[in-house]
């Protein structure tokens, strides 16, 4: 019985910190509860890649600190219901829960109700994405398909393809252009 209780307690801790697809939950990075939520119709067939234009991070503590600061800015200064992105990626190779798989984000005006926004911490005009962060996003996308959050024929685009921005930065954009689900011609999905 003691072993069962210990295993169960570890499972509860793991599920609190690492949710669906191994994502660090809001409880795991000490995030605030959203003020309001709108549910996202799934499966989603569009993934938008962005960057934060902040400093990068490679430690759990620093990445969580940056994610908390982003959420505070989004909610307190910009008036969003929650952190804007669906997921935030640290240079440490961890994915942090934002709006998540189930809720509409506020990452790309005109596309939020039909996409997942994945935001890399850093400025990828200058920084090079870490292998750990790229591998983590690829694993997240595979898991998203397996769990029915993403359609099997989803498309990946850079933020810059949909609105006037440099995001996700030249170096990250160059990387995602080589990914199998990358959509070069966005005319069929553009608002």
TrEMBL record:
It comes from the Eukaryota. The gene is HaOG205262. Monomer. GO terms for molecular function: N-acetylmuramoyl-L-alanine amidase activity; peptidoglycan binding; zinc ion binding. The keyword Kinase does not apply. Residues 21-163 form the Peptidoglycan recognition protein family domain. Belongs to the N-acetylmuramoyl-L-alanine amidase 2 family. It comes from Helicoverpa armigera (Cotton bollworm). This is Peptidoglycan-recognition protein. GO terms for biological process: innate immune response; peptidoglycan catabolic process. Disulfide bonds join 21-143, 57-63.
């Amino acid at each position: 019985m003691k072993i069962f209780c210990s295993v169960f307690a570890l499972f509860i801790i793991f599920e609190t910190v690492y949710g669906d697809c191994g994502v660090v939950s809001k409880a795991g990075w000490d995030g605030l509860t959203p003020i309001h939520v709108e549910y996202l119709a799934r499966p989603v067939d569009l993934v938008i890649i962005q960057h934060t234009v902040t400093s990068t991070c490679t430690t759990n503590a620093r990445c969580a600190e940056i994610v908390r600061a982003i959420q505070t800015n989004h909610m307190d200064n910009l008036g969003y219901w929650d952190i804007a992105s669906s997921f935030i990626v640290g240079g440490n190779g961890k994915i942090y829960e934002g709006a998540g798989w189930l809720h509409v984000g506020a990452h790309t005006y005109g596309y939020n109700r039909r996409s997942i926004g994945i935001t890399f911490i850093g400025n990828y005009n200058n920084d090079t994405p870490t292998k750990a962060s790229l591998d983590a996003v690829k694993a997240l996308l595979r898991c998203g398909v397996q769990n029915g959050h993403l359609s099997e024929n989803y498309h990946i685009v850079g933020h810059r393809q949909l609105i006037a921005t440099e995001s996700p930065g030249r170096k990250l954009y160059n990387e995602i252009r080589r990914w199998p689900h990358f959509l070069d011609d966005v005319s069929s999905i553009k608002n």
